[in-house]
Sequence to fold (354 residues):
Amino acid sequence: MAKALLQTTIAGSLPKPSWLATPEKLWAPWLLEGDKLVEGKRDAIRLALRDQEHAGIDIVTDGEQSRRHFVTGYLEHLRGIDFEHQVTMRIRQRYDALVPQVVAPIRRPKPVHSDDVRLLRAETDRQIKYTLPGPMTIIDTLYDAYYKDRAKLATAFAKILNKEARELESLGANVIQFDEPAFNVYMDDVRNWGVEVLERAAEGLKCKTAVHICYGYGIKANVDWKQTLGSQWRQYEETFPVIARSKIDQVSLECRNSKVPLELLGLLKGKDVLVGAIDVATERVETPEQVAQTIRAALEYVAPDKLYPCTNCGMVPLPRAVAVAKLNALGAGARIVRAEIERKAARKSKAARR
Ligand code: ZN
Fold:
């Protein structure tokens, strides 16, 4: 059977139920404790899964329901990091934040996300994607008082992520995605060691591997930063050719309401492209036709079997009802364009038979 065209997926996160964490807030504290928290996270994953299935999303995630934040939610399970004595550091050259310090060799005492993938695999027949923070983005949120070398520290994380990713693959994950918003900021580092270290994180995986690059959630610091980038966002012009030469299979980026010139997608020849057709920085819900328009525009540069309609970024900061409506729009928009492609193919084969 030919591969299904325009398979839909999401960047990763979805809002959490209001009984699990305070809604519409990044880093929202958990509202449950102990065994109830464990059970609550598992129930939330089931709900995130159902919402995606109902919307017709083909490659589903756990909605990142089991972690408070896409980076620290992983780091808090590791050793070698001092979370108690935090220092102020500039994040992605944009905003100051209190960050933990690396004070000893980085270790992972035990697997972090195995139970999440076991649950997903048991609960759905669809393809599963699991998201992990990328090495360069991780080190951008830490003060390094031990390795004293960005590439070395990133490599230490890449080795740990690789172990995690291999375990998740063996438990049934079909896609492992590394989130690397830092790829838009440190272009020299991306070329010099960033992609190489990312490949180290993905080494030996037989499942699909993806990298999500983006300009961040719709939080104020990111919106202000985007204002300074000019009318065309051409950062990808430098990073895409390097990624195109890498072993990573898929690239996820924002295309809806974004100033990324779509012709830059042409630089990703040979890769699957996860085209963001849902803006996560606005609560306005896209119509299916608007989603279809974004997909059609991207089809000018990406073949339909390589194009995966997706969200621009994680939807965790949005109200839950808005996120569900956006999921539905994503599924419906992809169906519109899929039907168009099928009609066109049918017309073509009819004409050929004449
Ligand atoms: Zn993102």
In short: The longest helix spans residues 320-353.
